Automatic annotation (TrEMBL):
<comment type="similarity">
    <text>Belongs to the Gfo/Idh/MocA family.</text>
</comment>
<dbReference type="InterPro" id="IPR051450">
    <property type="entry name" value="Gfo/Idh/MocA_Oxidoreductases"/>
</dbReference>
<dbReference type="InterPro" id="IPR036291">
    <property type="entry name" value="NAD(P)-bd_dom_sf"/>
</dbReference>
<feature type="domain" description="Gfo/Idh/MocA-like oxidoreductase N-terminal">
    <location>
        <begin position="6"/>
        <end position="127"/>
    </location>
</feature>
<dbReference type="InterPro" id="IPR000683">
    <property type="entry name" value="Gfo/Idh/MocA-like_OxRdtase_N"/>
</dbReference>
<dbReference type="Pfam" id="PF01408">
    <property type="entry name" value="GFO_IDH_MocA"/>
</dbReference>
<protein>
    <submittedName>
        <fullName>Oxidoreductase</fullName>
    </submittedName>
</protein>
<feature type="domain" description="Gfo/Idh/MocA-like oxidoreductase C-terminal">
    <location>
        <begin position="140"/>
        <end position="407"/>
    </location>
</feature>
<dbReference type="GO" id="GO:0000166">
    <property type="term" value="F:nucleotide binding"/>
</dbReference>
<dbReference type="InterPro" id="IPR004104">
    <property type="entry name" value="Gfo/Idh/MocA-like_OxRdtase_C"/>
</dbReference>
<dbReference type="Pfam" id="PF02894">
    <property type="entry name" value="GFO_IDH_MocA_C"/>
</dbReference>
């Protein structure tokens, strides 16, 4: 197995804890040879993680992607609005590229990157990790087998989790759509991609409703303060208390590493006293929705509904797929799939347990991407989550956000779809 070398552009949460961690766990498969990251502390951590010398560390993507290709692949894990230009430059230099989702919050950039991957005959794999999980792969396998006949209706729910909502989309990096992406694109492009993949048809119409209902200043409880550690009168009873989430309950083991690089009582206290994650959830500068529904119609007549809510006790996804000959019901986090073929006994379908984040999807994505890179006889073949494959789900998200902003109007995506398919040569 040939070791693949990589340039890591962006060493934040995904860059360090997913792609960088894969290289540390499987050094025979992947080696990080350079890191571009504007945050000095993160650069130092990356140097320690991967044994990098100072001349392998860069302040910006412009420096590492300046003129000469120095690795096999480029992993682009910057913020949403910083994806396009480094991706285009990396493709031009000859890199195969692994790009964090979403591709971009701008339609023209999505199309330009898809075009560039074809023009330069390079892989551009988008990190729609759910397709690589044992759970969703098994559901796709059942559908393709014909066991439920033609798909008629799909209902998919994404339960974001109250603590994840507060962390990422109220206090955190993705709380303002104009600086990152709308919620339906940033968080739920995974789900629209799964719907597009499972139904395997062109989406023709989209409508959507949603709003920022709860995390608003007018909903702040009496006696609350700007920060949870500033003597808030209701902090002990508030489920969104930063003290409880990052210091006290079981959630701290997962989420505290994202608020500070110094996992000590002193480091955590400083983050809560001075950083964005110590703010009261009712006194932040957030504007992305905390709940949304999307209705979709497909060319051959199937319809789908998607619900995203930030108000759930856990992070989970559930799905119901109704076909002309049967039905599938699934609960991703429990790896539970039940097949109901009409007139037959229900069948519990076994699912292999995936290792790593996103139900095994993170590691599954990395393994498949590296396998493709090693396969020098690809002859331009693109992967399961290529830029070409991702165009439709991005258009679905753009249409959904337009509909939501217009009060739920039905948006015909045929014009967008035709433009996209012509652009990427599908």
């Amino acid at each position: 197995m040939r070791q693949i070398t990589a340039v890591l552009v962006g060493a934040g949460a995904r860059g360090r804890f997913v792609y960088g961690a894969y290289a540390s766990k499987y050094p025979e498969e992947l080696k990080i040879v350079a890191v571009a990251e504007p945050n000095e502390e993160r650069r130092k951590l990356a140097a320690k993680d991967h044994g990098l010398a100072p001349n392998q560390l860069f302040d910006s993507w412009e420096q590492v992607l300046h003129s000469t290709q120095i690795a096999d692949v480029a992993v682009i894990s910057t913020q949403d609005r910083m994806h396009c230009i480094p991706t285009m430059k990396a493709l031009e230099l000859g890199y195969d590229v692994l790009l964090e989702k979403p591709m971009s919050p701008l339609i023209d950039e999505v199309l330009a990157m898809a075009d560039a991957s074809r023009e330069h005959n390079r892989l551009l794999t988008v990190c729609h990790v759910l397709r690589y999980t044992p759970f969703w792969s098994k559901i796709k396998e059942i559908i393709v087998s014909g066991a439920i006949g033609q798909i008629v209706n799909v209902q998919l729910s994404e339960n974001v989790g109250y603590f994840h909502m507060a962390h990422s989309f109220v206090r955190g990096n993705w709380n303002k759509s104009e600086e990152t992406s709308p919620m339906i694109l940033q968080k739920s492009c995974h789900d629209l991609d799964i719907l597009s993949w499972l139904i395997d048809d062109r989406c023709t119409k989209v409508s959507s409703y949603g709003s920022l209902l709860h995390f608003r200043s007018e909903n702040a409880p009496h006696g609350s303060t700007l920060r949870c550690v500033e003597g808030c009168a209701v902090e002990r009873d508030c489920p969104y208390s930063a003290v409880r989430i990052y210091k006290e309950n079981d959630l701290k083991n997962e989420w505290t590493r994202f608020i500070t690089n110094e996992i000590t009582p002193e480091g955590i206290n400083e983050a809560l006293e001075k950083g964005p994650f110590g703010r009261c959830v009712y006194q932040c500068d957030n504007n992305v929705v905390d709940h949304q529904v999307v209705n979709l119609e497909f060319e051959r007549g199937a319809i789908a509904s998607f619900t995203m809510s930030g108000f759930s006790h856990d992070i989970s996804r559930t799905i119901q797929i109704m076909g002309t000959l049967g039905e599938i019901r699934g609960y991703m986090e429990k790896d539970e799939i039940v097949l109901y073929q009409f007139g037959k006994e229900a069948m519990n379908i076994p699912v292999a347990v995936g290792e790593g984040g996103h139900g095994g999807g993170d590691e599954g994505l990395m393994r498949e991407f590296l396998k493709q890179v090693r396969n020098s006889s690809n002859n331009g073949a693109q992967g399961l989550t290529s830029a070409e494959a991702s165009v439709q789900s991005h258009m679905m998200a753009f249409a959904a956000e337009q509909s939501r902003l217009e009060g739920g109007s039905s948006i015909a995506v045929a014009g967008w779809s035709a433009r996209c398919m012509n652009s990427v040569g599908s």
